[in-house]
Each structure stands twice: as structure tokens, then as C-alpha cells.
Amino acid sequence: MTRLLYPARVFAVTLATVFASLAIACGGSDEPKKPATTPQATPTQGEPPAPPAQEAPPTADPAALAARGKGVYAANCIACHNPDPKIDGSIGPAVAGASLALLEARIMRQEYPEGYTPRRDTALMVPLPYLEPDIPALAAFLAPGS
Ligand code: HEC
């Protein structure tokens, strides 16, 4: 009996081995492919955000500077000066052609540049020192020919 059983057992083991290897082979090929684990594309904490695109400085374009000056003039000067800077206003004189030095002296210090002859001998204009960064724009707007 054992002589008969032994080869049968060997055969069974062999079959089992074959099936097992087949199962492994099939299992390996039929298994749905797992999506490759890609590293998350989230930005690292603490990384500085990309800087915003730099705008061209307004000084680069004289027309843009003058346009900005027009807005500053409309917002701060026409209470006394004429909206048309070539014409006298209700209180202030015409200011077309005012130089950067004259504007700086008037706006910052309520003064006039040395040697300048004022159009009026009154002292009614108030200093507006917060407009310091806008003085070049005002000068561009008031420049002769603009
Ligand atoms: C409160 C009224 C008032 C405001 C606001 C005012 N001005 Fe005047 N400005 C005057 C008066 C009045 C004069 C004449 C001198 C005086 O009395 O101070 C004058 C004089 C000037 C002069 C000298 C003119 C000259 O050639 O003698 C300039 C330039 C000038 N203003 C520019 C400006 C600008 C630019 C602004 C706005 C940023 C401005 N002013 C705002 C009232 C004003």
C-alpha cells in the first residue's frame, strides 16, 4: 500500500506545487495594479510664497506718472486751485508749469524756492506733507506741455 501511496503522494505534492506556482503566477498578473504612490505636490510649510509680478514703477512711464499726478491734483488741490491748472482757481493761482522744487517747497514747507517770485503774496496755502511721495507725479502733471 505504501508503495502505491508514496508515488501518489509525490504526484499530489507535485500537482500542488504546480498549482501553487500557477496561482502565484496568475495572481501576480491578474492583480490590479496599485497606483504608483506619487509624492504629494503640496508646498512645503514655511516656504515663502512666490513674489507677485513686479509692476513697472510709475516713474518708468512719464504719461502714467502725469496721469497719477492728475488724480492727486484732483483729490488734493482743486478745493483752492482751478481743476484746469492753467487757470486761476477760487483761492489759489494758476499752477501750470510749477517745478518740482516749487511744489516741494509749497507742499512740504509752505515756502518758495530761493529766488522764486510768488504769484501771490498771501500765505493761505496749507502744507500737505503727506503728499511727499506724490510730488514727482504732480510735477509731471503740471509740467509745461502736459
Ligand atoms: C487751502 C487752499 C489750497 C490748497 C488745498 C492748495 N493750494 Fe496751492 N496755493 C493756494 C494759495 C492761496 C496759493 C497762493 C499763495 C498762498 O496764499 O499760500 C497757492 C500757491 C501754490 C503754488 C505757488 C504758485 C506760484 O507760482 O506762486 C503752487 C505751485 C501750488 N499752490 C500748488 C498746489 C498744489 C499742487 C496743491 C495740491 C497738492 C495745492 N497747491 C493745494 C491755496 C491752496
Using brief descriptors, characterize the structure shown:
146 residues; 42% helix; binds heme C
How do the helices and strands line up, and which of them pair or pack?
Blueprint: H1 2-30, H2 62-76, H3 100-109, H4 135-142
This protein binds heme C.
Write up what this structure looks like.
This protein has 146 residues and is mainly α. The chain has a domain at 58-142: Cytochrome Bc1 Complex, Chain D, domain 2 (Orthogonal Bundle). The chain is built from four helices and no strands. It has helices spanning 2-30, 62-76, 100-109, 135-142. Bound molecules: heme C.
Identify the CATH architecture of the domain at 58-142.
Orthogonal Bundle
Cα distance, first to last residue?
120 Å
Number of strands: 0
Given the C-alpha coordinates, what overall shape results?
Answer: globular
Strand content: under 5%
The whole-number mean of residue pLDDT values reads 78
User: How many individual helices?
Assistant: 4
Which consecutive residue ranges, at least 5 long each, have pLDDT under 50? Answer: 10-29
CATH topology of the domain at 58-142: Cytochrome Bc1 Complex, Chain D, domain 2
Helix content: 40-55%
CA radius of gyration? 43 Å
Structural class: mainly alpha
Q: CATH top level of the domain at 58-142?
A: Mainly Alpha
- The arrangement of helices and strands along the chain is HHHH
**What does the largest sheet look like?**
none
Ligand inventory reads:
heme C
